[in-house]
Amino acid sequence: MDTYKDTFTLPRPSAPLHALVVGAGIAGLTVALDLHHAGHRVTIIERVRMIAEVGAGIQMAPNAARILSRLGLLDEVMQNANVLEKNSLRIYRDDEELGAAPLMPGMAAHHNAKDICQPTGHAAYRIMIPKDRMQGDQRALRLLGQNVGMRWMGPGGHIMAYPIKNNTVYNMVLVHPQEGVANEESWTRKGDKKQMKEFYSEWNDLIRSLLSYAPDGEIMEWTLNSHFPLPTWIENRVVLMGDACHPMLPYVAQGAAQAIEDAGVLACVLSLTEDIDSALAVYERVRKERAEKIQKSAAVTRKALHLPDGEEQRKRDEAIRGPGKNPDLWADHDWQDFMWGTDVMKETVDNFEDLVARSHGYHPHALNAVAY
């Protein structure tokens, strides 16, 4: 398929900066590329010796793909990507499809601050099933061969699954109640296959079959914690981005996308003015409210996906079947427009003077009146 193209051009700085990027994650690498493309010098520091896969697929939403295209990366990313055509919303027990949310190609077009971490009560198993472990299971192979995201909803948990690596690996994220009260966050903690299968033992037989193919010893289990919004993302000339300031829970698939948005906006503001303080103030104004709104939406979506069997669950299912607002915000058209349709880089460039005024507590029209 054709990838996204537009005519947006990164502004060029009149006085290039030397930026120090701490961390070579998605946010760090993207902002380094953005700044380099704009004409700044960049140094990246990272504590690990090698960047390696941590065992999960990642969804590249339209708002992220737009920025990757401007960096000249999207075509290369697409060579190794699966393009999901829709997201199928399903009941855990009998695999009934309640509805489908179309995806591609239609959706293409401060000081002493403390990070307060609160357990959600949930964790997520993450597994990747190679094609060769599915041999002989035609239903599993069909799932692997079709570019459809499967979203099974059940009491206390849900599953999100889709093919990756050009339909050679099936990626599954299985959200479930957290055992005990530990809230340590780790990307490398191993999960127990037996415990995983026990929790999903009453889910439909297709799910149970898929879980049986999970390679022993390769199941990851990530604790899911929510983080309170920080008072500010800026201190002096240090600015936070990505998971450092708005870690996302995996209910609306926006963790990487919001980090990439941070990168795009930061590169723009640092290239539009030599006043670094004003630039960072605009960055926070553009990004903080939007990212935290998307971050907060996880709680709403989690509740909708994890309802126990009963009247409230039946009302949810009817709402998904119907034409109105979808309780699963990831599949709701209005929320999709907000998440995916907003071009944060273009809005920053087009409204920069207004944003500078507002970030300093002025109204631009009042400034114009005084000037006149």
Automatic annotation (TrEMBL):
Region forming the signal peptide: none
Composition-biased stretches (Basic and acidic residues): 306-320
MF terms (GO), sorted A to Z: FAD binding; monooxygenase activity
Domain (FAD-binding): residue spans on this chain: 19-94, 191-295
This protein's UniProt keywords: FAD, Flavoprotein, Monooxygenase, Oxidoreductase
Region of interest (Disordered), residue spans: 305-328
InterPro entries registered for this protein in UniProt: FAD-bd, FAD-dep_Monooxygenase_BioMet, FAD/NAD-bd_sf
Pfam families registered for this protein in UniProt: FAD_binding_3 (PF01494)
PANTHER family: HYDROXYLASE, PUTATIVE (AFU_ORTHOLOGUE AFUA_2G04330)-RELATED, MONOOXYGENASE
Similarity-based family: Belongs to the paxM FAD-dependent monooxygenase family.
Protein name, entry field: FAD/NAD(P)-binding domain-containing protein
